[in-house]
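the two lines:
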Amino acid sequence: MHKRILSLVFALLSFQAAQFALMAQEFKLLDRTVQVHGFVSQGFVYTDDNNWLTMNTSQGSAAFTDFGLNMSSQVTDKFRIGAQGYDRNLGQLGQYHPSLDWAVADYRFESWFGVRGGKVKTTLGLYNDTQDEDFLRTFALLPQSVYPTDLRDATIAHLGADIYGKLSLRHGLGVLSYTAYTGHRSDSIYSGYPYYLSSFGGQIKSYGGLQYGGDLRWSTPLKGFLIGASRLNEHITGKGLAINPFAPGAGLVPYSESSKADWTNQFYGEYVVGRFRIDSEYRRYWRNQELFSGTSESFADIRGWYVSGAYRICKRLQIGSYYSHYTISNIVAGALSAFYPPATDTTLPANHDYDKVVTGRVDLNKFWNVKVEGHFMDGYGSGPYPNGFYSQVNPRGFAPNSNALVLKTSLNF
Amino acid sequence: MKSHKLLSLVAVIVIFAPVRVIAADVKVIANGSVKADMISASEVKSVFLEESNSLGDGTHVEPVLEKDGPVHEAFLHEYLAGTDNDLQSYYRALVFSGRGSMPKQLGSDAEMVAYVARTKGAIGYVSAETTVEDVKTLTIVPEGNGAQRRLITRVEPDYPDTLKRLNIGGTVRLRLTIGPRGNVETVEVLGGNPILGESAVAAVKQWVYTASRSRTAAELSVPFDSHH
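prediction for all of em together
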């Protein structure tokens, strides 16, 4: 209750701040214009059964707040700098621990070649780099099969460098855009995977590692039609403490896990015609991880896809719907296999989550919107890698189906 | 006497009707620091989507938009093929992912002209009928083919004194085919005042482009500004 009041007060304060900020979005510093932009969103989720996204949603939860503030400046014709701070509270995640979301120095030599370095948002599919900014889309929640909000830290940004550019193809064949990157991923200890491990007594102190990959997208000659593909490779290491499952009474012992193979392939398409937009993406995440200091190994094959459609009825009103399909298949080898039998039957609710969604969005003005969204979920996909449903907030186990009502409002300037 | 009045009426309709048709037209304007006189429609799109911040000749450019209104809508329809909501979401995606800035957005043609005139590299748009001073009006080559062939010889069209005195101006849209040697082979008027169209056709027929292996097609807009 206390948290709900805090959230409400915070939302009101943010609204006041945003109203003020709408009047002053830029200032001069050393004869350069500095732009200031920000956003804040507040959600409420009610589910008729399983608690979702680490919130106590079966009783209705407003622990669904995030906000960001950025500043940027075009220093020279080709050189731009900027940074954004981000904070969120999503049930047990985030807990209002602020983070540097991105901080970039960007030099664009030509439209076909640029370099940006620092903490850079990772280009992966249509929405990875803008997944926090729900005001850009019709939906309150992106399809969780491809963009799990509890696991945003896994893909959101890397400390490193990108090269990027756009190439206009001859003979009117459209435009190719490319990005290639490498860097270091660093997850917050308040993010989804460390929270998941805490259900086994794990206390993760650090989680992250090398990421590298690329994205290629083609704006085809058919106006509004874009297709693309992304690839992400990772070498991730997690360190901390955990309860030894073979000697639970012995207290906490050092724990580590690291990648043997960790990659993501994503394919996507988008078609925008008039007021109608249709998107579809497919993501496959293959995760072969050494667990418990190398004594065991897990092989997880996680596949997600969705098809979404959205229509703008008028300037202020949009409606949309999507179907999101998630499956996980996992095998554990080594010492821990005694505790984790193979989970390869994706027809079981524990190994899938099929989510049918309908949404309405009202834009009260250019900066403020309200969304109402219904989720009708078959399965809870709580396998050995998290996907929105956590045992800590569902201590009595999981029901096979859940329906959710999501209300969300966002301000941006 | 009666037929004289009828003829006058017909003449007025002939002269003014096309002006009304092109009233929703926009013209692209730029600060005097921008070297180019011509810009392709795809370049306009690229600049306003922040995919490129310089033109082919290397001039740095900065897009400037109007906040709303019919001129803004006409510009979006003509060059960006989207709605204002789409464009605002696009810019916000750039801003919040660290990939770009929010362009300057101004409230009227007058503000646009004033801002573009005083801001190095600024490129914006106003109604085709708006008086522009201290800025240059860019000729638009909407299709990529012609734009890739550089214009070597340009002959300015005659602006009939009568029309100029009556402040009758606007933009004439032309479709042309350019031969392999760079000569303009055919010119067709797609829109605009027919008298200005004749003048534009006569001038464009004398233009010479760079040579190419094949014949190319292009569309372009020729502005007639009665205040210049």
